[in-house]
Amino acid sequence: MTDSTPIPTPSVPAPDILRCAYMELVVTDLAKSREFYVDLLGLTVTVEDDDAIYLRSTDEFIHHNLVLRKGPVAAVAAFSYRVRSAEEVDAAEAYFKELGCETRRSKDGFVRGIGDSVRVIDPLGFPYEFFYEVEHVERLAWRYDLHSAGALVRLDHFNQVTPDVPRACRYMEGLGFRITEDISDSEGTEYAAWMRRKPTVHDTAMTGGNGPRMHHVAFATHEKHNILYICDKMGALRISDRIERGPGRHGVSNAFYLYILDPDGHRVEIYTQDYYTGDPDNPVVHWDVHDNQRRDWWGNPVVPSWYTEASLVLDLDGNPQPIHDREHKSELDVTIGADGFSYTRAGDDEGSYHGEASKGFKLGNQL
Amino acid sequence: MTDSTPIPTPSVPAPDILRCAYMELVVTDLAKSREFYVDLLGLTVTVEDDDAIYLRSTDEFIHHNLVLRKGPVAAVAAFSYRVRSAEEVDAAEAYFKELGCETRRSKDGFVRGIGDSVRVIDPLGFPYEFFYEVEHVERLAWRYDLHSAGALVRLDHFNQVTPDVPRACRYMEGLGFRITEDISDSEGTEYAAWMRRKPTVHDTAMTGGNGPRMHHVAFATHEKHNILYICDKMGALRISDRIERGPGRHGVSNAFYLYILDPDGHRVEIYTQDYYTGDPDNPVVHWDVHDNQRRDWWGNPVVPSWYTEASLVLDLDGNPQPIHDREHKSELDVTIGADGFSYTRAGDDEGSYHGEASKGFKLGNQL
Amino acid sequence: MTDSTPIPTPSVPAPDILRCAYMELVVTDLAKSREFYVDLLGLTVTVEDDDAIYLRSTDEFIHHNLVLRKGPVAAVAAFSYRVRSAEEVDAAEAYFKELGCETRRSKDGFVRGIGDSVRVIDPLGFPYEFFYEVEHVERLAWRYDLHSAGALVRLDHFNQVTPDVPRACRYMEGLGFRITEDISDSEGTEYAAWMRRKPTVHDTAMTGGNGPRMHHVAFATHEKHNILYICDKMGALRISDRIERGPGRHGVSNAFYLYILDPDGHRVEIYTQDYYTGDPDNPVVHWDVHDNQRRDWWGNPVVPSWYTEASLVLDLDGNPQPIHDREHKSELDVTIGADGFSYTRAGDDEGSYHGEASKGFKLGNQL
Amino acid sequence: MTDSTPIPTPSVPAPDILRCAYMELVVTDLAKSREFYVDLLGLTVTVEDDDAIYLRSTDEFIHHNLVLRKGPVAAVAAFSYRVRSAEEVDAAEAYFKELGCETRRSKDGFVRGIGDSVRVIDPLGFPYEFFYEVEHVERLAWRYDLHSAGALVRLDHFNQVTPDVPRACRYMEGLGFRITEDISDSEGTEYAAWMRRKPTVHDTAMTGGNGPRMHHVAFATHEKHNILYICDKMGALRISDRIERGPGRHGVSNAFYLYILDPDGHRVEIYTQDYYTGDPDNPVVHWDVHDNQRRDWWGNPVVPSWYTEASLVLDLDGNPQPIHDREHKSELDVTIGADGFSYTRAGDDEGSYHGEASKGFKLGNQL
């Protein structure tokens, strides 16, 4: 069952985290994954070997934003954050030790291109990494001759599935993250929250559900047409069935988005144009779970798989973490299907809405 | 029941049609419709009175592309085409008289801004108009100070619902239209066909269904972001429930599209970037009805309402035309739901496809 | 000296021309030209051999839009137009024979992929070709996997330099072209004119200057960002010195444009978003040569080389045609430099304008 | 003469600056300025009175990003930065007092919407402001119904003209800014430097020239087409002569840009798509002053006025600050005209370059 006891805040200071830096993904077929991330999405290969491929986006100057490692079970091996200095790696180790978490330190890093790092299984059960030392590589921002029409310029954020969102938020705030937006209902149930270190809408988000699992990893493009091109290309390659949701405009974050599925079913978001959140008093945006524009500003339906499917995460020995069920209400249940309802206009009550033909097709689409 | 006897080709020459020029729409609340077409979509008012509003797109130099006329029942009063010369209006009248159609001639036009015109109820039951004389107005292409972020530059095409698509096609070919693309199945059932006079993919299309009805009227933008802006604006205005389908990329026509519903439920498409079709040997593109990318290149589901809902059309006295049921197979039935199937890859058979999880959600989404 | 006697209109009908179809360019280094047109611009190679490369744009279904042929002198071997039927090739031959022009007929075509064709040296001294028979190839519009970020979708138009613009216009009107826009002055001097067969602003334009010469050949993209990407890529390849003019917005045509120079100095325009011109009474747009927004809507200066440089054209034996000087006023002289003036606002007279600081830098930039 | 003695670093800590927050501009005709910033650029009026107009961008939640104040002489009254907390305003005051700068404190702020602030004349002679307390207003990011086609989403940066760039940089680094890019030559002359607090390429830049003066204030858009629309609109309004430079792609910052002039000649940049610079070891990009792509990646010429013209800045009593001449080499002189040279390819030496025809027109354009 889910542990709902609050996570204590350590006496030692939290590490000073700069940003989400890279994800280490375990994939079952390296060649198929290379087709997806390199041939389709155009990520740049920094280095590769028989075991792993190291990829980066066009604006990046650190060694990689994504590691694809060959393994028996598709899963996430690490959510890796960069900290402000070498000392902050020590701070991270001390912080999680005091939390009683399992930690592992590697002076030479756990992957190529990264130096002294610490990996931990955090109180929510996720494999988190913290590092500062990293190999610099060419920032390809000016190398337009290498950019595809759907160029990914930056790793933007992670998204994690966890059963108890408020508990996760308090813990992440202790770790120094700030909430920028959330989804809840009038009874106080929290369904999801977005939190940041760098001044964008998020470095990671907590999505309520059975967890710990990885919901998606997101890369940013410069413009919306770059994302549309990825859809067009997937159509041309006859893999449109790997487009799970979108493209669309998020309510939360106000960004333009697309969700696609890699060969192992790992979800990747392509994302662009959220807003600056760097001021301490940045206004937090609260969304009603019944607002039909919260997850798609255009009111397009969220496909059920987007709520139910997610990737396993691994412990420090590489074994899948057990999944704990969410005991709070599910966003899927309260918004879609027989028991669910959503509105387009806050004024509309459930009744009027069932009578609304123009709304009907949207609902019908979700049943 | 539907008349399936072929429509004869008259002995007199067909009128030389230039292009679809404007639609006369009957709306039940002129003020609400003005909000939609002027405030939301940014069409320019050429002239208006208590009874009607005359609207045009930014590249247009003729008096209007759309007439909104106040009336008791939402419907289409005319699909109006411009012909090459004043004489061609006579040709049109003679052509439809020989077909035994009801025709009406007005030297001063049936609406403001248009001169000598003939209106007919064509063999498919649609109110068609043909004119040449028209009042010129300023082409606003250079008036960027008047353009909205979602500027509509041109009337692109009509789309008509008719029970017997092959019969309609043969008739339209007699009238001088050329087929550019169609959707059919291996048993020879035709579900829809696109046909043009100007060298784009279409001036009108025939969609199989209960008819005669108007499926939609389409305006073109310059770029895709213009269409995305219209969606964003509808979200901001909290009328996202009037976005019926899209935005997306069509398979047919290769254009980028959006379908929205006006206050009376008249369907409007916003459309951009199809291709030149002006050569006599322009290759006709045939789509398999089971190809899941035919109507949305990204494989996103077509909402059922898009297949079932359409607008009434009027006879020359302003009374709604009776609806005849389609007796051939329905695209909705053969592609969606228990009996339907679609594939992403021609290789996939129905079986393999049911086993395909990643495909499941797309289907599930349509059930 | 220039022949200013009007060109008679033949008694036989002019051929029914569909559109500009391809240009045959002579280049001095096939490998370098391939780098430019294939590696940089992303045109698709239909076929190539040691002597020539046949290229097409993404929307094209005929064999090619551009032939690069290896030769000793950079020049244009043919401006090739497609006619409506095989018979129209005969009509073209008869038409130019009656004009007393040298004509040559080849049942197998003059280049690969093209059938029965006639080539002529037209009354203005340009090598024109007319054909109908052509090999069909795959239209790559849906092949997004093959599209670059700067994808060229269509051959849009040619642009020719000729000493006497009014004389050229009367001749082209006889050949069935319609004027859409022109540039002249209050004294009646014509500096340039745009004329079309397909319903865009032009299939070719006549630019006043020493001729016959080829000013540029233009390809269309779908959106403006495609053109900006080509600039960015040329910067990345460190060939920004091959960007001659733009990107910018034309006054004439209202299209977005860029002019770049191939390795032989042949000028290529990348162009998008002009307007429909297919109605017989399409309003002709007249521009004052002194209107500083006529050639760049943003008032950015036209570099002198754009007015003075152009490509040689060949006779039917492959020898360069002699150049005749323009005797009328030059657009360069009347708009730039000591004797020239331009205004941003029609109200401004030359005097006020010299005193206008904000105008000064624009002028200064042109001196 | 210019003071070239290094500026000492105070013993007290520098204030923790978040970002550039707003500029207070003195304009001579409030109505004309309103036309420019509100009607043309679409900035939102938070509040206005007979004396001043307070404007903000669509993503902003603080009271304003720009104040237009009516005054006798066009100038800049304040470059205003937001600090992390109320205490940091005290820190700023102490910091500049120790530097011996004139400082003024106002608990109620110097302008509407802003609370406790300190204004100083900094060691370079610029009027700087620091504040934390501010009135929150609606963030209009989701209000697409209010966005123009050229929507400005964020204040991006300032740009200052100062005679001694290295001296200015050392001082700004003491104040906590980090250099991201610079322009220098092989002899060590520094011509310009970009420096940031928020993790973009800059919050302000130091441009070498006679100063203290304000070179420009920059606002960001989401996409490039938004900037192109502003150009198109200025053409439609027949004020294209207020487009000073661009649009283009910067080498420095890799951003897409446009420079326009307001009615008083204050220069405004519209800017989009630079890159994340938030890591402490973010690589500094050094540009050679002779690299012709440093300021325009496409090699388009920088108009002389862009180097020579700038706005006055005021002292704390509202009187224009005296201008000190730059004694180091001028970027204009070393790159343009008889003594200057630039190259497109680092390989090219000055000699080869004069022989390069394709380069000739670019140079000719600059003479």
Automatic annotation (TrEMBL), chains A, B, C, D:
Leading EC class: oxidoreductase
Q: Which organism is it from?
A: Citricoccus muralis
Similarity-based family: Belongs to the extradiol ring-cleavage dioxygenase family.
Q: What is its EC number?
A: 1.13.11.15
Which gene codes for it? hpaD
Q: What Pfam families does this protein map onto? A: Glyoxalase
* Region spans: Disordered: 347-367
All residue ranges annotated as the VOC domain in the record:
19-133, 154-273
Per UniProt, the keywords (alphabetical) are: Aromatic hydrocarbons catabolism, Dioxygenase, Iron, Metal-binding, Oxidoreductase
Which protein are we looking at? 3,4-dihydroxyphenylacetate 2,3-dioxygenase
